[in-house]
Specification:
Helix content: 25-40%
CATH topology of the largest domain: Ribosomal Protein S5, domain 2
Distance between the termini: 25 Å
Oligomer: single chain
Mean pLDDT: 91
Number of domains: 2
Number of strands: 13
Largest sheet: 8 strands, mixed
Low-confidence stretches: none
Structural class: alpha+beta
């Protein structure tokens, strides 16, 4: 997660503005269903320069949330509010927090926007409270909110195991990603409920991911389910390959698809070509690494809505 700036004002307590990056799942293998209802996974996740923006100030009556997305709830059903409430319970401190969220990541798109926003909330509250939660406790709290939330505490690509809580940092080249979403949302729960677990578990997961040859390992077990729901995505994947993508797949439960390109120019040319006929949401962005800490990457995003 990346701090954009520290907010200060005469009438309010200090606050923070953070960038909350999206992600793509470059590799996603479902190993089976656990007794607690979660699914055991092996996945490679890559954060992107496409990001929501979250501002948090320790001020106001209780916990309040403002958001520029008209369809997102502002109550405890929103993962941001839930994260703030969980932080207050974990630390045993009364909490006043005024949170503002600017959405750039599509909702229910397989790009992790809600999880990223929740992770930013935890990091902002912990920083402003002078870090009462050590990294292990913050990680555990994040995992209680959702499988992807711990990943967004890191700031770089990682291999995730378990339900996503066991993370191992990895290094990937600064590939560029072209994202396409037909303008629909898709329930992650529905996708998992319709996955053929026997077929998925029959194939052993990879343990080596060659950074320079993504075409050999980019894969998503959930893709077959998503393509049944949105068969038109198959045509987008074929076009991405035709336009020079090194690899292409559905991200997470979808319905966003991505193409991975070796440089910005090739990705931009493909994006311009696709924008002539594709009527949905399209974005071009860069993969982030642990070295990207100064937020200058924020300008490395181009979107057509």
């Amino acid at each position: 997660m990346f701090v954009k700036e520290r907010l200060k004002g005469a009438a309010v307590e200090p606050g923070l503005r953070l960038l909350c990056p999206a992600k793509v799942n470059l590799y996603l293998k479902v190993l089976g269903r656990r007794p607690d209802g979660y699914h055991e996974l092996v996945t490679v996740m890559q954060p992107l320069s496409l990001a929501d923006e979250l501002s948090l100030i320790l001020d106001g009556p209780g916990i309040t949330l403002e958001c520029d997305h008209p369809q997102l709830p502002r109550d405890e059903t929103n993962l941001v509010v839930k994260a703030a409430q969980s932080f207050a319970r974990q630390t045993g401190r009364p909490l006043r927090a005024r949170i503002s969220l600017r959405k750039r990541i599509p909702v229910a798109a397989g790009l992790g926007g809600g999880s990223s926003d929740a992770a930013a909330t935890l990091l902002a509250l912990n920083a402003l409270a002078r870090e009462p939660l050590e990294p292990d406790r913050l990680h555990h709290l994040a995992a209680s909110l959702g499988a992807d939330v711990p990943f967004f505490l890191m700031g770089g690509p990682a291999v995730a195991r378990g339900i996503g809580e066991r993370l191992e940092p990895m290094t990937l080249p600064p590939y560029w990603y072209l994202l396409l979403n037909p303008g629909a949302s898709l329930s992650t729960r529905w996708v998992y409920e319709n996955l053929d677990l026997n077929r998925s578990a029959a194939v052993a997961p990879k343990e080596v991911w060659d950074p320079d040859h993504p075409e050999g390992w980019v894969h998503n077990d959930l893709q077959a389910v998503t393509l049944k729901r949105f068969p038109e995505l198959g045509g987008l994947l074929a076009r991405l390959e035709h336009l020079g993508a090194r690899a292409q797949a559905v991200s997470g439960s979808g319905p966003t698809v991505f193409g991975l390109f070796p440089n910005r120019q090739t990705a931009q040319e493909a994006g311009r070509e696709l924008s002539q006929t594709f009527s949905g949401w399209l974005a071009l962005c860069r993969g982030l690494s642990l070295k990207d800490q100064d937020t200058t990457w924020e300008s490395h995003t181009w979107t057509i809505c």
